[in-house]
Amino acid sequence: MAEVVGGRRRPHDPSRIGREDVMPRRVRVLLTMVLASALAAAGPARAEEVRVLTAGAFKQVLLAAAPDWERESGHRLVVDNDTAGALARRVVAGESFDLLIVPPAQMQTLARAGQVGGDAVPLGRVGIGIAVREGAPRPRIDTLEALREALLAAPRIAYIDPASGGSSGNHVAWLLGRLGIAEEVRGRSVLVPGGLVAERLVDGSADLAIHQISEILPVRGAVLVGPLPAEVQLYTAYSGGLSPTPRQAARGLLERLSGPVGREILQAKGMEPPG
C-alpha cells in the first residue's frame, strides 16, 4: 500500500512500519528517566536540617511535635537543650541555630545585639513543682508552712545549680531564703548543672526534687507531688526567635509551635499557653 504525502502517493516502504510509533516511545522513556533522576536529585536538596537551641523546660514539647512536623514538612529537627543562661552565652559566642527558645529576658538581650532576627513569638509558660521517687511518701506542700516542713525533713534536695543560669535554680535559692531555711538546707542540696533534676530521685542521689513541671513529668520513676504554693510560685515564659538569616523551614516550625497544635502539646507536657 502506498501513502499520500503532499497530495502525491509515495510507494510503500516496509522498513517504515512502526517507526513513527517506536521513536515517540523511546523519547517518552528517555524523558521519564531524566525526570525521575531530576526528582531524586532534587528531593534531598529540598529537605533541610532545622537546628533548635532550647531551654530544657521546652524540650519535651519539641520532641513531641517533631514526628508529625518532620513527616509533613520533609525536614529534620535537631534539638539541643541547655539552661537559658548557657544558651544565651553560646549564641553570643557565635553558635549557629535556626530557632532559639528561651525566656523573654534572654531573648530581648540577644535581639538588641542583633543575634536574633525579627520579633520573638510567645510560646508558653511553666510553673515549678516538687517531685519524689515513685513509691515514696508524698509530703504536703500546699501551704508555705507545709512546704517548709517538707524541705526540712528531706535528707537531700536536688535542684538546678543557680550558677548555671537556670531559672528554676535561681528561684529555689530565693525560695529557701524566703522560708528562712537556706543555711539548714545548704549541706543537703544536690546541685544539678543542667538536665532533668528528677533523675536524681531515680538514681538515689536525692529524696526531693524541685524543678519545672514539664521536666519532672517525663522522668520515669519520679512522681510529681504538686506545684509550689501560689505565693512562691514562679512561672517561666518561653518565646521563640529565628536566626538573623532565617530559613523558611524554621519559620514553619515556629508557626506550628505557636498555633493550635503547639498549644495542645504544651498542655499535655505540663505547660500552659502564654499568659
Automatic annotation (TrEMBL):
SUPFAM superfamilies: Periplasmic binding protein-like II
Family matches, as InterPro entries: ModA/WtpA
PANTHER family the record matches: BLR4797 PROTEIN, MOLYBDATE-BINDING PERIPLASMIC PROTEIN
Protein name: Substrate-binding domain-containing protein
Organism: Muricoccus vinaceus
